[in-house]
Amino acid sequence: MVLLNGQTLTFDEVKRVLFDGDKVGFSDESRKKVEKSRQAVEKIVAEERIVYGITTGFGKFSDVYIDKDNVEKLQLNLIRSHACGIGQPFPEVVSRAMLLLRANALLKGFSGVRPVVIERLLDLVNAHIHPVVPEQGSLGASGDLAPLSHLALALIGEGEVFYKGQKVPTLTALTKEGIFPITLTAKEGLALINGTQAMTAMGVVAYLEAEKLAYQSEVIASVTIEGLRGIIDAFDEDIHLARGYKEQVDVAARIRDHLADSELITRQGELRVQDAYSIRCIPQVHGATWQTLNYVKEKLEIEMNAATDNPLIFNDGEKVLSGGNFHGQPIAFAMDFLAIAMAELANISERRIERLVNPQLNDLPPFLSPEPGLQSGAMIMQYAAASLVSENKTLAHPASVDSIPSSANQEDHVSMGTIGSRHAYQVITNTRRVLSIETICGMQAAEIRGVEKMASATRHFLNEGREIAPTISEDRVFSKDIEAINTWLKEKTSTVGKIKKNEMHSKTR
C-alpha cells in the first residue's frame, strides 16, 4: 500500500498506483493536520469572518458575502457551475492520477477539508472508479477549475465515471462498491477544484511515457546504426567528456553498450570518414532531450507534493492567506519544454528513416523493397513519419506564452498549462509512431546486413520485434505493422540493454 502524507509522493509510488493497482491510504499524522485545518474553517464560519471562498463568492464575486446558512449550497453551486469541461475525456489513467494527486495535496493540511473528503477520493482510487473528465476547458490558473469540477462531481454522486471498462453514471458505480456520496461543506468544493492536478496528472503520465520512449529510442537508433553500418568512433567516451554534459555522456555509453559485440558497426575511415548528423550526433541530440526530461521530472515531483489551493490556512487558522499557488506557470513551462524535447526525438528519427530508405544515401535496396519498382517497400512509411514530425512542430508551439483574461479581468493572467500538457502528450504519441516506423525500417536493414552479425542486445530487440511485425517479404498494409509496433513499445515493460542513469564508465566518476 502507498501511504500519502502530502510531502513525499514519488514517481515510483505514482507508477505503482497508476499501473500496478496498489491501494492507497494516508498517515495518522496527516489526518491530524487535516483535522486541525478543518477546525479553523469551522471557526471562521461560526464567527462569520469574511474569508475568500469560505464566506464569500468566487472570482469577481469575492466581495459578495455569503451567510453561514448558505455555505453548503455555495459549494454545491460552485461544483455544478464550474463543470464546464468539453471535448473528449482525459485517458482513464490521467483521471486516476488526478484523484491521487488531489488527495495528496489536501493532506498537507492547508486546505480546510474534512478527512472524509480525502477518504472518498482514495475510495475511488482503490475501487478503480475514475471520473469522466473532459480534456478541454481549463485556463491553467485559478486552478484547473473545469476539469477538477468534473472530478468533484463524482464525490457528490453526480456526473459519469469509468468503471470496469464502461462509462456509467457515478451513482451506479458507487452503489456497486458500497461507497456513499458526500455533501460538501464550507470551502470543500473550492479546495477540490483550486489546484493544478489536471495539468500535473497529464504531465506525470506524459513524463512516464516519455522517459520510457527516450530509452527505447536509443535501442532503435542502435539498430539503425547497424543497418547503416555506422561509425562507432563518434560515440567514444572521450568526445563526450570533452563537452561535459552528463546526459550526453550517458547516451553515448548506452549506445556503446547496445552495440558492444556488433560486427556491423564500422570505424572511421573504414567505409567513410564521418556519418551524417542524425547518426553521429545522437548523443548530443538525445542527451539534450534527457536534460529536459530531468528538468520536467524535478518540477513535477515538486508539484505532486505542492499546496495549490486558495486560500491557504496556516497556524491553526490564525493566518488565512489568499495567494496564487493555483497558477500553473511552472508546469506550463515544463510541459512546453517536454513537447519540444520529444518532438526533437521524432525529428532526428525521421532523418534516420530517410537514410534507411533513400538509395542515394545508402547501399541498401531502394526503400528497403524486396522487389524495387514492382514493390514500394517502406517508401510511404517515410511519408507518414514526415507527416507526424510536421504535426509535432505545430503542437510544440508553446502554450505558456499565451494568456487571456477571465472572471471580468479579476483573473487577468493565466498559464494555459493544461493545454501544454495535452499537447506534450500528443507529441509523445506521435513520436512513438515515428520511432515505430524507424523500428520497422531499421530491422529490415539490419536483416539485409545479416542478423547473425548484430550485437546481442539489438538482435534480442529485433527478435522480439519480429514477433510483432514480420520481415518485409512483399508489400502489405503497413499501417497495421506501425500500430502493432507502437502498441508493443507503449506496453513494453523493459528496455533491452538499458544502462541505469548512475551506471557510468570509470572516466565519468
From TrEMBL:
Q: Where is this cross-link: 5-imidazolinone (Ala-Gly)?
A: 141-143
Kindly give the Pfam families that the UniProt entry links to this protein. Answer: Lyase_aromatic
Q: What are this entry's molecular-function GO terms?
A: histidine ammonia-lyase activity
Span of the signal peptide: none
Modifications the protein undergoes after translation, according to the UniProt entry: Contains an active site 4-methylidene-imidazol-5-one (MIO), which is formed autocatalytically by cyclization and dehydration of residues Ala-Ser-Gly.
User: Which Gene3D superfamilies does its entry note?
Assistant: Fumarase/aspartase (Central domain), Fumarase/aspartase (N-terminal domain)
Catalysed reaction, written as an equation? L-histidine = trans-urocanate + NH4(+)
Chief subcellular location: cytoplasm
* Modified-residue entries (2,3-didehydroalanine (Ser)), positions: 142
> EC top class, in one word?
lyase
Question: Which InterPro entries does the UniProt entry name for this protein?
Answer: Aromatic_Lyase, Fumarase/histidase_N, HutH, L-Aspartase-like, Phe/His_NH3-lyase_AS
Pathway membership, UniProt = Amino-acid degradation; L-histidine degradation into L-glutamate; N-formimidoyl-L-glutamate from L-histidine: step 1/3
What does the UniProt entry say about where the protein is found?
Cytoplasm
The reply to whether Protein biosynthesis figures as a keyword in the UniProt entry is: no
Which superkingdom, per the lineage? Bacteria
HAMAP family hit by this protein: His_ammonia_lyase
Describe the family membership recorded for this protein in Swiss-Prot or TrEMBL: Belongs to the PAL/histidase family.
Which NCBIfam families does the entry mention?
Answer: hutH, PRK09367.1
Designated name of the protein: Histidine ammonia-lyase
User: What is the species listed in this Swiss-Prot or TrEMBL entry?
Assistant: Alkalihalophilus lindianensis
